[in-house]
Amino acid sequence: MKSETRKDEIINTAAKLFKDKGYSAVTMRDLATAMGIKAASLYNHINSKQDILKEIIIDIAEAFTNGMSIIIASEVSNISKLKQVVALHVNITASNTNGMASLNNDWMHLEDQLDYYLKLRNEYENNFLKIIEEGISTAEIKQTNAEVIMFSMLSTLRSLYLWIPKKEDLNADDLANNLSEVLIEGINV
Amino acid sequence: MKSETRKDEIINTAAKLFKDKGYSAVTMRDLATAMGIKAASLYNHINSKQDILKEIIIDIAEAFTNGMSIIIASEVSNISKLKQVVALHVNITASNTNGMASLNNDWMHLEDQLDYYLKLRNEYENNFLKIIEEGISTAEIKQTNAEVIMFSMLSTLRSLYLWIPKKEDLNADDLANNLSEVLIEGINV
DNA sequence: GTCTATAACACGATAGAC
DNA sequence: GTCTATCGTGTTATAGAC
């Protein structure tokens, strides 16, 4: 495990603050205070506040893209692919809870990288929808509105960052299995 | 239908802007420009930026509280109550899409009313959870983790504000039924 | 790597004219 | 009800000493 650089410390501290108040409401002074230094000293390690946001979001967005490309290439049932998608979200969120808050809530404050982020997100959602549509066409999944299914699953998966920290005791695999069951098999007897 | 006052216009315009960029990133000058007036003129109708946020959020939060108290008092099955909760979210969100964004994303920027908002939210979630737990104890609902079920349903329902505007053609009742089916009966055959 | 000092500008809000 | 002008403060970021 490579040791955390000063820059990494700043980015991780920023992600924590962004989670609580959002990118726009966190000042460089807030961040400096949380680091125990003065605001001007931050600029010895990072170029701008915007750069911090970019590093937080783009890293995670690319992790989702990479994970999805492995899933769609795998030769399993579409239901299995959906379960892998659930596990992908659980794993990424568990390893970077604070960053997920910025990805979900502050992506619109990206400047130079906004178009790139939106491109990755659109591709991700298209792949997700395709899995559901193929599942319906092979009769693995009920003949329902595919977009409603994706919306529902994705809403839950995107909210995981709020929930995982409260359940520290819960194992990531257990949570992924539990969630898969609720999302795929429903809740009624 | 009572005609919209100038104050209402300001609040509705603010809600639209808050939805896109968040409370902190929207300036009073942004809001004034969107209204076609100067920033100073806003203060003839509202007391502060904070007051606008309060009016947006508290109204909606109280609507949820009122809706929930009717649902828990009704003498129907717990599954029926859950379907009523889904319909409550669809209806409130459909009638105030922009305000729902502030409720979800900017509640932490409430000042004087923060404690009151959190009290309403906690009570709401406790009632929601109780319906699920009673449904499990009466064997209407599978023996699963009740909190996982609530988390999943609530995540989807809270994200409706992002989705309803894209589906203008969809009837609110149809959406509520469709969502209830996906959330309660699951997606697999 | 951190500091003090400060530039350059944006912010919420008010005063008072019309 | 809207305007112009402005106050006091907070903002990101830079310069240069240590």
How many helices of chain A? The count is 10
Which structural class do you get from the secondary structure elements of chain A? mainly alpha
**CATH class assignment of chain A:** Mainly Alpha
Q: Report the major sheet of chain A.
A: none
Question: Taking Cα atoms only, what radius of gyration of chain A do you get, to the nearest Å?
Answer: 19 Å
Work out the largest interface and the residue count of each chain: A-B, 38 and 37 residues
Amino-to-carboxy terminus distance of chain A = 46 Å
Number of strands of chain A: 0
Give a structural overview.
Two copies of one chain form a homodimer. With 189 residues, chain A is an all-alpha fold. Chain A has one domain: Tetracycline Repressor, domain 2 (Orthogonal Bundle). The model of chain A has no long low-confidence stretch (mean pLDDT 95). The interface between A and B is large, with 38 and 37 residues. Chain A binds a DNA duplex (18 and 18 nucleotides) through helix 3.
